[in-house]
Design a protein that fits this description.
Largest sheet: none
Number of strands: 0
Helix content: over 70%
Radius of gyration: 21 Å
Structural class: mainly alpha
Oligomer: single chain
Length: 96
């Protein structure tokens, strides 16, 4: 009797829960976080220079930077996903 494909998928899913993050994946996550820290640092400097009373103007000035950071973060996640996908395709890989 042939095994149900859904059961096969469930087995694979349960096996995936036991994988560990590879150093490559961790570095992608660090890079993602670092981009956020760049924005946070710039925002802090803007408040130091302009003061809290200019919050609306600072937010407006920061919008293009936050948009760019979001695009970079999306690209980091896309690239990381490609690496993870390739690792998941390999038989016996226990790191993603």
């Amino acid at each position: 009797m042939e095994q149900n494909p859904i059961i096969k998928t469930q087995k694979k899913s349960s096996e995936m829960r036991n994988v560990t993050l590879s150093s490559t994946t961790k570095e992608f996550l660090v890079a993602h976080r670092m981009t956020q820290e760049v924005g946070d640092n710039v925002l802090e400097q803007m408040f130091k220079f302009w003061g809290d009373s200019n919050e609306t103007a600072i937010e407006k000035d920061m919008d293009p930077l936050w948009t760019a950071i979001g695009k970079v973060q999306d690209e980091i996640i896309r690239l990381m996903s490609n690496v993870i996908h390739e690792n998941l395709m390999r038989v016996g890989v226990t790191e993603i």
